[in-house]
Request: fold
Amino acid sequence: MDDPIPSKFYSIPQGGNYAIMHKMNPDKIAIIGPGRLGTAFAYKWGRDGKEITIYYNDEALCHEINTTHLNPKHLTEDLERISGSMDRVPRLAPRVTATNDLDEVVQEHDFIVLAINMKGLPVFLNHLKPRIAKKKTKTCLISPIKSLASVGRKNELITPSQMINTYLFDLHHRYDIICIGGPFFDVDLAVGNPVCVTVAGKRHIAGLVRREFFAQNRGELSSYYNCDTVGVEACGALKNIVANIKGLADCCDIGSSIPGTIFARSGVEIRALSKILGGHFFTFLGQAGVGDMYVTLSSNASKNYRYGKYFYERYTGNTIETHQRVIAGIDGTPEGPGTLKSVYRYLESKNMYSPIFRSAYRIFNEGGTREDIREQIIKACQFDRRSNEYIGPFSGMVYNLFPHIWYRRHIGWWG
Reply:
């Protein structure tokens, strides 16, 4: 049950010292980046009467958003298709404005949504850190980012919240992180279709965020709480790779049965990686896991699913050329291809056996023919070295105690 929150301006403990309290203003929220998701949240929270500030470094784009109350780069074409004409496309609420002044955005807002991709996150955090350091009040960083990155000489995988904590490690008393997991699509948020998200983080701040930003109109947007931030992030990122594969499989003439195996066996690999990263095994069984993966694998609203379909349809034999052609035809950036490269580097460095993700890497990065793509998908599902669907009691104990060792199966235990 949520903790009772008695007033409009919420008192949040600073640095664990309950004698020092900061009144946070939930009526104002900043969104970093005017991409599809950032724009969708602006539509939703604007309808709820929040004062929304969108940050982007392009002054001309900010001016156009403020003038037309539309995003000229993202989401508007889809809204036009849904509405039937440009005249019927909904406009952003009057209280939604755009600015290229990052100093003002950080200083004036207690809640900041990081609606950017993982590739751009390190650069932004370098800009954010000195501004957080100068700020006298605490900030809640809200991350809906669904991707992973590999870092360091050992290619360690990290989630968005782990990256944020790494970059802001000496400012831990000045911010909190809330992770937003699926299942949700940006178009549904924008037009007001019913959406239920997962909110993960420290319970006191997560309860505040849920109440103020995800419960104003529960017919449109509501949420469940999950304490497993890393698990929610890992599930949200890894299912994008599976969506890439599913999009391919639906074009390969392999029948209607094998997609079920893709779904189930990829879940084994997602749970394994999630646990190694520090997540909980059972998070995958919730809506941030199977719920998010189901919709991402089964809907054309998913840009990662479309990426797989377009990759097969526009395949030239050259994976780099095909990738560029596919990206040019998708509004927004599919997270799956970048996450897949990070995951593959991690699998190689850790000697992990992961047939679904390894096959995906070969398909999207090593080339071949369309028949080779089909065979890779079949091989990943039908020729798994593991014959049992579930592990026994002894293996389960080893898995829980030493997951890094248990999954070193690709080229032998000590290869």
Notes: The chain has 18 helices and twelve strands.
